[in-house]
Structures are given as C-alpha cells and as structure tokens.
Amino acid sequence: MWGFKFTMDRQTTAMLQEDQGPQILLVGNPNVGKSVLFNLLTGTYVNVSNYPGTTVEVSRGRLKGPLSRPVIDTPGVNSLLPRSEDERVTRDILWAEGQKVVLQVADAKNLPRALQITTQLAEMGIPMVLCLNMQDEAAQRGLEIDVQRLAELTGVPVVPTVAVERRGLARLLASVNDPQPCRLQVPFGHTLEQAIAEIEPLLPETLPWARRAVAIALLSGDQDMLAELSERLEASSLRQVRKALHRAQEHFSEPLSYVISKARQEFVQGVAQQVTRRVAVPRPQWAEKIGRTCMHPFWGVPILIGVLVLLYEVVGRFAAGTCVDWLEGHLFGTSVRSAGEASGIINPFLERVLATVLPWPTVVDFFVGPYGMITMGLTYSLAIVLPIVFFFFICFGFLEDSGYLPRLTILADRAFKLMGLNGKAILPMVLGLGCDTMATLTTRILETKKQRLIATLLLALGVPCSAQLGVILAMAAALGWQALLLIGGVVGSQLLLVGYLAGKLLPGEKADFIIEIPPLRWPQIGNIALKTLQRTEWFLKEAVPLFLLGTLVLWGLDHLGWLDRLQRLARPVVVHVLDLPQEAANAFLIGFLRRDYGAAGLLQLQQRGAMDGLQTVVSLITITLFVPCLANFLIMAKEQGWKRAFAIVGFIIPFAFTVGGVVNLCLRTLNLNF
Amino acid sequence: MSVRTKQVEHAHYRLYVLCEEQGKNPLSLEEACLEGIMDDEILQALVEQDIVLVDQHHIHLTEHGREEGLHVVRRRRLAARLLTDVLDFPLGTEDHDAHELEHSLSPEVTRSICTLLGHPRESPTGQPIPPGPCCKEAAREVPRLIMPLTELRPGEEGRIAHIATRHHSRLDRLTALGLFPGSRLWVHQVSPAFVIRCGETDIALDREVAQDIYVRRMDS
Q: Would you place residue A5 in the very low, low, confident or very high pLDDT band (cuts 50, 70, 90)?
C-alpha cells in the first residue's frame, strides 16, 4: 500500500476505501469559508480529530442525502508543497489510496491564489469541482467573474456560491456528481519541461497522482515524495531521477521550487485576468474601515484592550468565577470525607451511595475522600476547568470567524518578539489568566516547536491563573498599591528576562511573521457553536484523564503519608531562604497540587498575622513564579514530553526560590516594609 | 579601453571567482588550463599589475589582486543587475552586455548605480555582490529606484523587482500569497508590522521579511 512514509491514519484510510462512490475532499486556501461549506454539506455526525502526529485538525463527515458519501475537510493551505504541517496533511490526504473527488473552495475575489491550487490539482489528474465562494465580497470590491469562461478554460464545473447565505448550494451538490479532471496546464519553460519529460517515464504507472504531478513535486524538492519513490523504484531508475533533478537545478541559481512557483503564479495571473472584470469602483465598506482601525498602531490599542478585557470578563470572571462557583459549590459540592461537611448535591449524594454499597473505607475514600477521584478529580475537571474551557472556545471562535484574530496578533507582535515569540502568543497568555492548563493546550496555535516551548515555559513561570489572581490581588491590596506594583514588576520583568533568554538560547528557527489578514466579517453563530462543541469534546477526551491521573497521584501520596514528608523537606528552604513561617511550606506544596489552595493558605497566614507585609510580598512573588498546578504539569508532559516538562519544573522551582530569596534580601537590606 | 585590457580584466574576474569564491587559491595550472585562462600574454599582464604570482605549478591571487578583483566583480554584477531590473533585459541575455558595460564604470558611476538599485546583495543569477563603501553608509543621495519594501511609506505603491532571500520556506510562503517579482502591492501601514495589499489580499509582514522584498516605487 502506498503512503507508509506519509502519516496515514486508519480512519481516513478506512473512509477512503469504502465502496460508496468517490469520497469528497474539501481543499482550498485559508479563510475561504471551507468549514462553513463543510458544515452545510455534512450531516450531524462529524468527527474532528488531530491528524496523527500533528496538531492539525481534520474533520470527517458524511454528505447529507441518500448516498451519504464521506466528506473530508482538509486544513486551509495556499499551496500543496509540503512546507508546513497543514500542507503536509492536505497533501497526504490527497495522496491516500481510494477513489476521490476534490471540491475546491475558492475565494472569488482572490482567484489567482485559488488557481494556484487548481493547477496543482490539474497536474494530479484528480476529478474536481471548483466552488467560487464569497461572491458577495467580490461584488463589493467591484469584481465580476465570467464563470462560463472559467469553466471552459479549466474544463471543470465552476459554481459560484455565497455559503453563509446558502446560495448556490443546490447547484454545487449537483455538480459534485459530475466532477472532471482539470485541464489547466502550466508551461514551465524549456528546461523544466525537459526535466519533467525525463523523469516521468522513470516513475511507476500506478501512483495515486498522474506522473506529471509527481515529477513536479520531485523537482520542487519534496523529500517525502523522493523517499516514497525510493522504496518503489529500482536503484538505477532512482539514480536517473536524481541526476535529472540535479541537472535541472544546475540551470538555475534560484531554488527550483521557487522557479516553479513563479511560473505557476504568472500563469494563473494570466488566467484570472482573462475571466475577471472590474465593473465598479470598490465601495469602501464599514467592515474594511473598522478592520483597518483594529490594526492601527494607535487606535488599535484601545480596541485590543477592550477585547482582552471582554475576554477576561467572560472567561476569567464569568466562567471561572460565577459558573465555577455555582458548579463547584452548589452542584458538585463537597462530601463529608473530603471537607468535613456535606454541601452541594452530587458529592454528598455519591458519598452516601458509595458508603452504603462499599464496605471498605479506604476504597470509599479513594472516590470521595479529600483526594477522591470524584470529589477532587472529576469535580476539578468538570466543575472548574470545563466551564472555563467552554467559554474560552466560544470567545476564540468569535475571534477566529470575525477575522479579528490576525489583527490582534499584529498589535501584540512587537511586545512578544522580545520574548522569542510572536503576536499570536498573546492568546495563550491571556487565557492563562483564566486557567494555565487550558492555556498550555492553546499554545498549539503557535507555529514552531520552539515558540510553543517558550510559551509553555512562560505560562508555567509567571502567569497566575484566575484562582490565584483573585487571592493575590486581595492580599496585595491589603498592603497598598506599592506592594502590588513591586510584585507585578518583579514577575513581569522575570517573564521578559526568561523569555528573552529562552528565545536566544533555545535551538530552533524563528518563524517568519507572514500572515494573511481576512476581511472583518459577521461570524456565523452556528459555525461557532459547532466548533465549540467539537473542541470541547476534544478537550474532555484529552484533559480529563490527566486530571484524574493527577488526583490518583495525590491520593497515593497522601495514603502513603508522603505529603507530610514532602512538606518537611520544603521547610528549610522556605524558612531560611525566604524568611517565611514554616507553614508557608504547606502552602507552596499544596499550591502545586491545587493552585488556589496554595494561595489561600498564604492568605490565611496573612490574616492570622503570621506574616508581615514584607513576608507577604516575598511569598506572593515566590508563589506566582512557582510551579503551576499538577494538572498543568501533566498537560505540559503531554504536549511537550516528560523530559521537557521535568526540565521546565526543574528550572522553575530553584528559580522561583532564588528570586524570592533575592527580593527578600533586598527588601531587608533596604529596610523596606509594606 | 583596448580589447587587450578588457580581456585582462575578464581573466581577472574569472580568477577572482575561482580563487576567492570557489576557494581554489592557489589555482593549479591544469585547472587554469581547463578554465581557459592560460594565455601567456594575459598572465604576463596580470603579473605586471601585481594581481597574480605564477610559479611552476600554480597561480596565486595576490592580496592586491584580491582587492582589485573585488571591484571588478562588483561592477560586473551591478551592471547585470541594472540591465535586468531597470532595463528589463530578460535573464540570461544580460551577460554579454554586462561584460561590456562593466569596463566603463568608474567608481563614482558604480556607486551611483549601486545606490540607484538600493544596494542589492545579489546578481540576477544569484551570485553575491561584494558590498562597497556606499552600501555600508546606505547612501541615499541618488534617488532610489529600487528599494527594500521597508523604505516605502503608507499609501505608496510598488512593484516587486526581486526577493533577496535564500530561505526556501519564506520564498514559497510569499509566492503562495501572491508576492513574487512583477506583483504590484500597496502599503497600508508600516507599524507595528508592515501591512500591504496585493491583489485583494491583505498581508502582514515583519521588518525582517519586508527587508528582503525589493520593490520599484510606482506612481499611481
């Protein structure tokens, strides 16, 4: 079977080998409305999952109607050269075995960029249909496309649509039953055409794509393709292929892939010009004006702050505050075993049931005790994290679909560049103020591994989650604004410092900041709702097991009596380096296990008068810089691997204590107090 | 300039490329033969000008020869750049005329051409152009015709002349978005990031990427 070099998952393979008529693959540039169309075409059962080994989401569904053919949505790509994960996954899906039909979704006003992909599909010889979506936006820009002529030039059905209004949908569905291979052929110039002619006959006949496409892929430097073929070709043929590639490159000083891309671009610009007319002067739309303001270096800032505040209000306060309080306090509550008294509904009820049914107290404790799987594990993940996650996804869906997200990242970019990140990182950071565990998962939106690592590190280091933030603000406020300023300043400066150093020292490339900025649009509520549900489901599957695992560890530690021992180990450092009372060690330790408990422990010490102003400041700085909660640690291990997670924690613990110690020393030397 | 002198300068160019850029200093006589630089008269002239030293088996490029060679190379490649970028010679045909043109370029003219072209770093065929003093000062007296995108102000239009980067992925990403030689673009804003419009697409770039895109300013 082909494709063992390419990542292939069983589900897609199974789908593509079903015998229900060719499967429909949705392909297209980003921001063309592919997912809207996908949702319109498919029924209720849709499976969204990460393509194996990647962080790329792939949706699979079935066509509505009697045939219920499989429909697969690929990530938005600008080209089918496998340079990014998205492109690689799309290419892999196109390469997979099985009968397929491509439904290419294009942005009518950006025809040349769509035709780039069309020509590549043409080379592959896969039957296709071209959907020109967003006709309304093209009309606003004064553009008119001669659909008839385009259909003639390409030889495929071309269907104009406005997906969000469901216009053209019927015609589109009809055309999917009659796809054609596209006949656009890019003339690549004498040298390259000669190379293609040399390579083609050397390739096996039975490939998923026409041999021309494979030859062009090889000339473009597709290493996976070369590896794939080296398994299938005799050594002599392979040598000849390599020689032909080498010879072709020698003719050009620029990389072959660039020469090919340029030729392709020039060709599609020509085709687009033949079928596009500007019939009116574009009317400046309010959406455009607002869109520009959002990016403006001056006026964009208040908008950015407004959006961030709104985000924080919804996720950090409403979700993390109100919803969580209700869910945790009233719905789930506590059992007698876990908190000394029964409150709420679910936990006491379960406690009663289990206590009656199971005669072994230890086992009951395992479920509903202080570190019980239900009272802690499930309650934590469902009552605390889930509402936060859910509302975050809603907000994120809004930001994505409205087109505001790229604008936001532009404004944030400069600041984050200092830390080896780019503007996109603002999202996980803000989200971290709600829940760090969630934010760590969100680092997936960053493009390079290095950026994800730095973001994960900074989140763990200095971003206090909403539980902590509330307590810290309360404690600091009691001491006056100077204390707050000092704490904020120290933590902030350390974040910048560590980020800056990490950016310089860690290996890995900086990702180029090249982003397309789509027009601002009214987001489709239905689309957001669907995405949110899909993502929440994904989060539940990924994270809840981790929370349960964390609880299991805690229960084990408590059961073995090691919690006490760990606390005693921590005391010397806490007392001598930080000059804090020894109970603070408990706060730090419990804080790792449950971040909000840790800070609450310090609050109690302060309220009892066991810590003075200076000690409070030192303890707050240290706990903010201290390791994140256990769930966060587990998510880090999941996303970055155990070695990295341990390395991060191994760095943060001494670092936090050192900084705390230094601040302690400085304040005492300067004889300051709060 | 006499034909003789032109030939000597041409040989000097070839020697510089072989010795300095391809690292073959000293150059073996056999190889020089293969490259066609074994004319006795020309070698004699080069020795007299203290450009090379010839012994039994090798040709050595002297320090002086290296310094002077740098200028020869610079002139040749700037001339080639001028022909392709400004005078629209198709790539591949500019070579002969660049040869001829180069011999007549005085240092001042060279400096002006370099400034006009925005201190390009590479010839049309991808060979590096050694920087001159004007590049280091990024001199601007002669109004620039071709400049990095970072020189354009909001509201200005440009047509891409060439993209000076070797990062394959960057080239591919830019091309896929429609940014390649010949495309017209319009600058919307320059801070905090460069935002340009190309076709009907708005694209944001940071300075590092924008610096690689050399454009010709267009008056709309």
A: very low
Q: Å from A414 to nearest chain B CA?
A: 7
Q: What tokens does A420 get? A: 């080896």
Averaged over A606-616, what is the pLDDT? 79
Its pTM stands at 0.72
Joined tokens for residue B199: 């076709």
Structure tokens at B70: 């740098």
Measured between beta carbons, which residues in chain B are less than 8 angstroms from residue A113? 176-178, 199, 201
Q: How many CA atoms lie within 13 A of B1 on its CB side?
A: 15
Cβ–Cβ under 8 Å, residues A674 and A479: yes
Higher pLDDT: A105 or A421? It is A105
* Residue to test with chain B: of A90, A517, A520, most B Cβ within 10 A: A517
Residue % of chain A over a pLDDT of 90: 18
Residues A450, A509 contacting (CB under 8 angstroms): yes
By CB atoms closer than 10 A (0-12, 13-18, 19+), residue A127 is: middle
A13-to-A60, A96, A435 alpha-carbon distances in Å: 12, 7, 37
Asked if the Cβ–Cβ distance from A110 to B168 is below 8 Å, we say no
Whether the per-residue pLDDT at A290 is higher than 60: the answer is: yes
Token couple for A112:
């040349």
DSSP assignment letter at A112: H
How many other C-beta atoms are found inside a 10 Å radius of the C-beta of residue A608? 10
What is the full DSSP assignment across B162-180? EE----HHHHHHHHHTT-S
3-state secondary structure of A448: coil
ipTM: 0.76
CA A325 to chain centre: 28
Chain segment A265-275, per-residue pLDDT in tens = 989 999 999 99
Q: Determine the pLDDT at residue A195.
A: 92
| CA quadruple B117, B121, B124, B129: dihedral sign | positive
Q: What is the pLDDT of residue A44?
A: 60
- Which amino acid would we find at residue B42? I
- Report yes or no: B177 and B201 within 8 Å, Cβ to Cβ: yes
Give me the amino acid identity at A407: R
Which residue on chain A is closest to B189 by alpha carbon?
A296
Interface test with A, best of B160, B168, B189 (most A CBs within 10 A): B168
Helix (H) or strand (E) holding A103: strand A100-107
